[in-house]
Amino acid sequence: MGFLVETSSMGKKRSADQVQDGGFQENRSASKPPKKIKGDKKIIKKVHEGSAAPSTSTSMSFMEKKKKRKALDKERHRSSLVNLEQKSKNMSADERQDEIAAPTVSSKSGDLPEFHINVFKDLVSSEASVREAGVESLVKELQEVQKAYDQLEKKDLVNGGLKLEAEKDDGLNDCAPSLRYAIRRLIRGVSSSRECARQGFALGLALLVDTIPSIKVDAILKLSVDLLEVSSSMKGQEVKDCLLGRLFVYGALSRTSRMVNEWLADKSTPCIKEYTSIILSLSAKKRYLQEPAVCILLELIEKLPSEAVLTHIVDSTGIAEWFEGANVTGNSDALLLALKIHEKIGHSHPTFGRLLPDPFSPSKFFAADHLSFLANCFKESTFCQPRVHSLWPMIVSILLPEVVIQEEDATVISSSLKKHRKGRKSSPSEEETSKNLQSFCEVVIEGSLLPSSHDRKHLALDILLLLLPRLPASLVPIVLSYKVVQCLVDALSTKNSWLFKVVQHFMKELSNWVSKDDVRRVLVIVSLQKHSNGQFDLITQMKTVKNLVMDFQTESGAMLFIQSLTNMFVDDGPTSEEPSDQSQTTDENLDISTEDKDSSAGSSDFLKCWIVESIPNVLKNMKLDSEAKFRVQKEVMKFLAVQGLFTASLGSEITSFELQEKFRWPKSATSSNICKLCIEQLQSLLAMALKGETVNALINTAENIDLGAYFVSFLSTLRNIPSVSLFRYLSEDDDKVFKELQEMEIRAFREERNSGINAQRLHSLRYLLIQLLLQILLHPGEFVEAASELIICCKKTFDIPDILESGDDDDSGTEEEPVLVDVLVDTLLSLLPQSSAPMRSTVEQVFKNVCSEISGDVLDRMLRVIKKDLKPARHQDVENLEEDEDDEDFLAIEEEEGEMGDTAGSDGLTDDSEGVMGSEQNDDGEDSDGSEDSDEGMDDDAMFRMDTYLAQIFKERKSQGGNETAHSQLILFKLRVLSLLEIYLHENPGKPQVLMVYSSLARAFVSPSTAESSEQLSQRIWGILQKKIFKAKEYPKGELVQLSFLESLLEKNLRWASKPFKKKPTSNSSKKQSAPWNRHKLIVSLAQNSVHWILKIIDARNYSRAELQKVISIFQTVVAGYFDSKKSQIKTEFLKEIFQRRPWIGGVLFAFILEKCSLERSEFRRVDALDLITEILRHIVPSDMNEQNHESSKKILKSHLNKLSHLISGLVTNMPKKKSRRSDVRKFCTKVFQVVSSVNLTQSFLKGLSADAQIACETQLGNLFVNLKKVKS
């Protein structure tokens, strides 16, 4: 019985931990030991232990005394019963013991079967199976007892001798004494809070009443009142136990069919009316009894025929008054009862009063005035939280009667939205449902519950969750109204709010509800954003709307989303403050700064901004085939183009007969901020389309699957409509270039379709033309020159005369292709300083397709941008460093030593506080980073182009009003050029020009100005060097790779690897000290990687030993510095790795290293250098040598044997003091002895040792040297 969920505590919130047995449920108190009655003293003790109420009172309560008296009476009656019974003399002793062990109730004459009362203890068990077995046994025994009792002729004799209690006028005169005893005990048992006593005893009572006709219903009702009477002396838990006991008794009766049978037998039976009146009277005693009492009554109503309900329930005493005062007291259970009775009888009744309209209909019930009348009933239903009151599912079933909702097709709805008409005509029932739901949400949800307490807000959200499974998608806007969304926003924006988790759960269920239905998803997104001004995620700091948008996976869902947001943009968008006459809009109004965009975020344009940004985002995670994706892209493009590029001069709607489509604009003029945002999103859409398209796919499919071509065609079509104009006025030059770009794109599209090899290049070039066309609208007057140059490049590419301007010479096709590509790349570079991200992405795509053909001059100009600085570094190296002049004419490109980039390419490290590479000085002692000399070696055209790039940077700085310095703009420009260089390295990994790129990037990385200007720039250069150069699968090859240049790079890098780190003593901050130290380690790592990479290139050329003398000399110089100077910081492990990878270098330097190790001034390096000698010996005398290798190894080692003996003598004579160092010496000597022994040179080796040296060897090495001498003998 679900009504018993509420009855576990006095007015407290209900717990979910409830036990159910045959429908009887209750929150149980702590387990109590069972009662056993064996003597008066034991009875008193057990009653004290088992019947104590949870009350804190120490005095014995009235109920406890009453229970003890009853227990004593039972024991006395049982004793008298045993004395009256005469057993046969031949009864065995075992039978007597069984009789004592199992107390029974039997007749004096022994004619009635025995009833074992110990079965009652099983009814208290927490195990449902034990309780059910106990009830079955109880009922079975009592049925036998009653059957035997009914067959007796002298019942008075039995009744007179077995009066267990005062049983007069209890209505059970036809029941056997045992049955009467059991009924009384069961009624008292349902008032116990022990374990599951209420469930077990109520189940037993229900089965007894249902199976034994002798038990009268009116007798049970009378006994429940008499035995469970609440006296004035009772308090707290005692009162609650009695009231709950009566409730369980009535519940047990409602579960039986007795009252139904009695009505069928006698339609004037008074028991049903009496039962109804008693239940209503009980419900009025405590608030927590009201709902379960009504639920019990509703169970009976479900079983009764409608005639019985009408004559016995509706006409019962007190029910009319109960209904009449329901709206005043807020009796939601009375409203529930009225609705259920009306549903049962099928018509209205005057007893309902004003609770239900007469005649009843859903439209009248959900009328605003009637719902307002019932407002108190709705508000007070929060009493049973967190459980939802039973009233609400009933109301929801009336409000939304159709359980199975017809699935709405997103494609059909999208089409209807696009045609600006309603879909199918709604049926009268659907219109009525919509009207009722609208009234219900406005009056109950928004008018009564949401403005009230948190509990009622919680109830409102629970009701909405009940509506969702039945709710048609078309009614979502009614449910998610402005006030509901504001409630969600307020709760989610305050995470410490009591409602936060409630609303969080609501949003989770709402997301699950829309997960597989795009129509629902669209309407939920629209409602959330429309009523939060597009800021739902922003205010709540969650990603609810974003995740919903990203979950679109179907074309129909995306189309519906786009059309819905388009309609919201046009119909419901906030009014703009921009002037409506676009022809009078000035450039000042249209040049929107970052501050203007930020300010619009808080203005009425915020919703439109969100719409413009969200429509393209629907494509991000969608996995569609090319044709479906193109259709979605077209719809996105149309929205952005119409709302961002154009305005209608005659009204807000036009029809294109060519496109067979209607286009609409907001009634108020769209702000310039929104127009700019539309153009930016359009640029991003086109850039994304370019990345996702391939020429082969485009050629093999229909010609119309090209978003760029479709956009240009769409643009031309709309411009030809007289009543449609661009959103801004263009100057004569801008308008001319705008038209030329359009015509050139159309020509490029035709050439692309007819081209083979260059199709990809033309494809990316077309998209660049479109990007420039949009940039002219965003920034009038700034891209005219770049657009003109790009048009010229296109003409030369197509090899056509200039048909756009008369008077030009028809010699554009005579230029060589490299010159054409150089001009194109220069144009691309001129676009980088002030271009947007989509423009840069398109520039990179174009560059990727032409970079294999660019000349060294263009590459050099790009590298000079990376090395360019507006001011010298703050910290310069004052040491006189040698300047390498061998790299000045690599690949026939002259680079002056005085240029800025050579500062970065210095071969020494600075000694300043930053600890980075210092700048070089030229031969005259002047700093090489002087700005006056930075551009020497550049011809006039190159100088002009470089000045153009920098002029764009300064112009951008001026337009920003000082927000960003020229220095920061230069850093951004360098980063963008680095992206192009990265593309070049990726596409041309084996070209000789890679060496030039490496050299410039390495210089830029070690330059102090780079370290001081931008950490991001340093990291980007480092990443390109590591990933695109050192770890590339290919490396520079060809005759153009000059050995002299490689030798120069090798020497510089070895010096970088040897340069020490000098810490500034005045710096106290550990953070400031760690930054330069970390940078120093990066520079050393760069130098080491560079050495290995350069040696790889040298090895690939297969130079002769004579040609490699300079390389050997460089390494010899480095090794000499390693031994001679403590300032040299070149790592032993680095040299060892070089000798390991290239044994020929170690073999050539072996004698030199042995000689250096033997010198006394090199003693500080001697032990460390032993690893180098060990590594060289490993290659001279390999462990797996054959006979041929044996002789050659022996010959080589013999030539160095004297120096090796001399080194051993020096080591053992002057053994290091540190234990670890001595161990290293012993290991080295062991290795030498093994090598010497393996090539049979032991005797020659020992001859090289003097007598003193041999004595020292025996002293320091012990058995190692003794064993070597044994090998000799």
TrEMBL record:
Listed Acidic residues bias regions: 921-940
InterPro entries found in the cross-reference section: ARM-type_fold, DNA_pol_V/MYBBP1A
Biased composition (Basic and acidic residues): 40-49, 86-99
Keyword Cell cycle: no
A Pfam family per the record: DNA_pol_phi
Coiled coil: none
Compositional bias (Polar residues): 1-10
GO CC aspect terms: nucleolus
Domain of life where this protein originates: Eukaryota
SUPFAM superfamilies noted in UniProt: ARM repeat (SSF48371)
Alphabetized UniProt keyword annotations: Nucleus
Gene Ontology biological process terms in this record: regulation of DNA-templated transcription
Disordered: annotated segments: 1-107, 572-602, 897-940
Localization: Nucleus
GO terms, molecular function: DNA binding
PANTHER family for this protein: MYB-BINDING PROTEIN 1A, MYB-BINDING PROTEIN 1A FAMILY MEMBER
UniProt record similarity statement: Belongs to the MYBBP1A family.
Name of the protein: DNA polymerase V
